[in-house]
Amino acid sequence: MRIRRKTTGWNQSNLASHASPQTSALGRVEPGDGVPNLRTVERIAATLNVRLSLLIHDYFAD
Prior knowledge:
Layout: H1 2-7, H2 12-19, H3 23-29, H4 38-48, H5 52-61
Helix pairs in contact: 2-4, 4-5
């Protein structure tokens, strides 16, 4: 997710404001310290304009 976020030029706060999860939650999810719920992942995928399956794949590939 971090790579995809950075390709948009956004920081975690930008992504959080568009996808609506808390910035602190994104700070835990990106390094793998937290597991988001499905709705949050759907919002992040939509905000980053990527398929949900691709974002999930990226999460488990890291």
